[in-house]
Amino acid sequence: MDPLIAKPAREVVALLKAGQITPGELIDAAEARIEAVDGTLNALPTLCMDRARQAARNLEPPSNHSPGWLAGLPIAIKDLNNVAGVRTTFGSPIFADNISDASDIPVETLERNGALVIAKSNTPEFGAGANTFNDVFGATRNPWDTSLSCGGSSGGAAVAVATGQVWLATGSDLGGSLRTPASFCSVVGLRPSPGRVARSAANPFDSLGVIGPMARDVRDVALMLDAMAGRQAGDVLSLKDAPSPFLAAAEAPKLPKKVAFTPDLGCLPVDPEIADICRRAAERLAAEGAQVGEVSPDFTGAGETFQTLRAAAFAGRHADLMAAHPGKFKAEIVWNTEKGLALNASEIAKAEAARGALIANVAEFLGDYDLLLCPAAPVAPFDVNIRYVEEIGGTRMDNYIEWIAITYCITLTACPALSLPSGFTGNGLPVGMQLIAANGEEARLLANASAMEELLGVSDGAPMEPKITHIPA
Is 350 a residue of the active site? Predict the structure, then answer.
């Protein structure tokens, strides 16, 4: 492995800004690493090295281009976002040969801040589902055991980051698509507050789906958030720049003084081993003097609320395309879209009102606590050939998305949530814990997460070598 691959993104950026390395060297290092490990994993099915090398030349002296936050650092973009001149499939056979004419807002923002896009990361079809597979590129495999799922829908991003194919990667998160794969791959994924990262969106007022960063440690996630955040006129919900850099907050780690821990949000099925690992992580805070209470806001009915709002969004997003391309959508998306089309105005209005009440209740709750802690996934990584988890602890799941209720209930709150590596199961599979702060409090969340990362010591932030399990032909 090239020594540059093993360095944190922030250290590599410092070397770039000091002129000790060039963007071209990093592209070469990343390309060699992808060639070495991705054949088994299938995290980055679309590469755009020539485009990145051209962009790198534009950053070299005597260019007057600002190095920005990333100064020529190669990254991966999830295959749900358009990158100009690059194949963007959305994981759908309908778009298997689609070449984007223009880049989406998050890509433009990152490139303006010095990012070099070298690849598109794999995702399930239209990002639907928490296991990364599709009919265009196939399945992405977990580097901790290649017979297992890496989670989704930002699964390709998590795997690429974990194995050092890129230092940073974008993800998106509607129901847990940053947090679940981060947990399954032992990396850090941050779902920011709605508006923190400007998006290109068909529905500009949707605040369920967000774009966010993924990295091998908290400080690198903070660096990438700095490179992604900011007000953009094309996104009416986007927020102004934060008063100070998020990286500065992460580099001033501070343990929370008072936290609430819940193994299950008070009402959800969670594997007992997962709950115990997260509880022990919370107890480490208590040993350091933090006040830790096992308590949760009331999430009763949140699952139904989310499922209604998600279905309504799917109807708006997919119904026309589905009618134009019958038989081209996977069954889960068809079900979810048809559920949305069957809703009436009263049901949608009731769900919106219920979400508003939940946001208010959680805001009041977090007025008394620095953080709410809970598992980032209710189960450990499972067989990659299983489309979704159908049962947890004897509780049957009604549909393909219900098993990640531990994350999608948090989505409803509009709070920033970070998945932090927090332990391992008895057979060595990673477990992440969600750290949830009040809306808009990314800086404090990152400071707390950075301190907890040091305290727990689960990951050293180094890229891993894939653990290959024989996969039958």
Answer: no
